[in-house]
Amino acid sequence: MSDQLVPVSEIQSADDNVPRWGMAIDLDRCTGCEACVVACHVENNIPIATEDDAAMGRSSHWIRIDRYYEGTFPDIKVKYRPVLCQQCDDAPCEPVCPVYATYQNAEGLNVQVYNRCVGTRYCANNCPYQVRVFNWFDPEWPEPLDLQLNPDVSIRPGGVMEKCTFCVQRIQRGKLDAQAEGRKVEDGDIQPACVQGCPAEAMAFGDLTDPESKVSQWAGVGRSTQLLGELGTKPKVFYLEKSD
Amino acid sequence: MTTLAKALNGPHRRVREDVLHPLEGLSFWYLASAAFFSALVVGALFSWGCQIFWGIGVAGIRRPVFWGLYIVNFVFWIGISHAGTLISAILRLTDAGWRKPVTRAAEAITVFALMIGGMFPLIHLGRVWLFYWLIPYPNDRLLWPNFRSPLVWDMTAIFTYITGSVLYLYLPLIPDLAEMASRSQGWKSRVYRLLSIGWTGSDRQWHALERAMKLMAAMILAVAVSVHSVVSYDFSMSIAPMWHSTIFAPYFVAGAIFSGIAALILVMFALRKFLNLGRYLRPLHFHNLSKLLLLMCLVWLYFSASEHLTVWYGNEHIEMAVFNARVYGEYAPYFWLMVACNFLIPFILLGIRRLRTLGAIAVSAVAVLIGMWLERFLIVIPTLSYSALPAAWGPYEASWVELSITAGTFAAMALFYMIFVKIFPIIAIWEYDEDVSAS
């Protein structure tokens, strides 16, 4: 019996030609190496917190590895779960924003408009996954990381909320490249940085409305679950894990 | 003294002497305490300046506790604001004779508490200089605020409430302002005259004033109830554990009235002591208000118990994490102190008639204020600290910025009040005249 409350086959876009982006993560393959975290930082110009700030809970990761321990030492088992924005179809963060800084776009992305955000942080309180990241100060990078910022991604000022975008800049690039070559976007054309960086190939990204896509195939298996799906948020990230 | 004052005799004259006396002169202790409170307020403004300059990170809020003391104080002060309007409006509508020395003191609390409380959503913004984006104003890009957001409801409610309470404070002031104009000279007289908007005391004006006050009393009652309901919606509309609760709206309204009465009692003690108004603020007033406080204490217990009992019995694991942190865990000392302050102390001191002395009433009022502040703290912090995913749990510790701003707001309340009693009579003179004439 699957924990998946909204079967992947029921996810649809308003228009047949519009994709609905989603992700599947195979927890049985994840080694917890955090390569996805590093790749995400590099791709998305995420500031790097100092040791003190991190200890205080001010680290900014758009994707993080949650660790859960089972058993007692020495007979202990660690479970890793990469947690990123679940791009919920019924996202609790969206209605509470007083200035429409976060909303659902046509492709099912829960987008964040940095310039519109005034920093009430209500969205972050209402996100059960705690994947929203706040800029407590203006961003800074230790040298020489300040020289390698990605020109495709804007720098967010202090006082603004941010979060995983499914690498919207890569989605845009993929669509433009396909358009220039006069073809449709094919499965696998677009890969967010975390998916690309995963050495265990534990992550799949693609269009959930396409039943042939890798992500739909993965999300449709019996091991597929959704995180806190019982809250009715309809996440578009699926976790594959064997039940024990 | 002017000829008008001389012409008055007996009780009319005595009321004026007693009530207008505090408006004259500035004693050393007045100036010293005003300087002390001003220093605290300046300190708070400095801290806020630091926060704007360096970033909101100078405060202690952090993931996952994105709302900290600012929101605690916001809810607390909006609660205090219920002292005035609600109590004075109820007493006015029911025509309770003993209300007369109490109403203006209460209405002033409302206005000042709202001014202070209304600042906190701004202080807490990440980019406060853009706060006007929450206001639905016409603009080039046709951008509107999100009317689905409880924060927009909240802002609307508080704007309505502060407008209503300023009017509600102002209306009964008008006859007194006209009298002040005739009693003072020079620029003061002109200012009072201007503020009294042409009051001559004709029958027509009295009728209009009576009707306006009745109307405002009825409207402000509805607004007051809705405001604290909307404040509670900031929490209960979310899906956070122990926030998403249907009891929150009445629970917040009851809590607000509870803390509002306590604040009013405390202010009345201060007025009685520092302005020598013992003849007007008599033990009767304190006893009547303390009975109201006792009633609200029981209502608070009922709501609190209902809230916690349902969560505990439901035993839902995400909510139980918050419940356990509150009742047994990290926040248990605050929780049990709150129970003592909000229930045990006022219930024992006010419930047993032999113990219900003026001193006991003062102690209960202080206890209730502490308890209600703790209640706000216990609502805001543990829920955020123990959110749905255990891997994302985290603690909260306020920084000097939040503490300084918190201290500054209490000082601001005292300062506003001190300034108010020097400019306006704190007891409605004309309402006394009515009494005297009637008898």
List keywords for this structure.
heterodimer, A: 244 residues, alpha+beta, Alpha-Beta Plaits, two-stranded antiparallel ribbon, 7 helices, 10 strands, B: 439 residues, mainly alpha, Formate dehydrogenase/DMSO reductase fold, 18 helices, 0% strand
Q: Overview of this structure, please?
A:
The complex is a heterodimer of chains A (244) and B (439). In chain A, 20% of the residues lie in helices and 19% in strands. Chain A is of the alpha+beta class. Chain A has one domain (8-240): 2-Layer Sandwich (Alpha-Beta Plaits). The model of chain A has no long low-confidence stretch (mean pLDDT 91). With 439 residues, chain B is mainly alpha-helical. Chain B has a single domain (24-428), classed as Formate dehydrogenase/DMSO reductase domain (Formate dehydrogenase/DMSO reductase fold). Helices cover 71% and strands 0% of the residues of chain B. Chain B has 18 helices and no strands. Chain B has helices at 3-7, 10-20, 28-54, 69-80, 82-93, 103-117, 120-123, 150-170, 174-183, 186-195, 203-236, 248-274, 283-314, 317-327, 332-351, 358-385, 400-423, 429-438. Chain B is globular, with a radius of gyration of 23 Å. Chain A binds chain B through residues 56-59, 66-68, 81, 83, 92, 95-100, 116-122, 124-126, 128-130, 133-138, 157-161, 227-228, 231, and chain B through 54-57, 61-67, 121, 124-128, 130-131, 133-134, 143-146, 148-152, 155, 234, 237-240, 384, 387-392, 394-395.
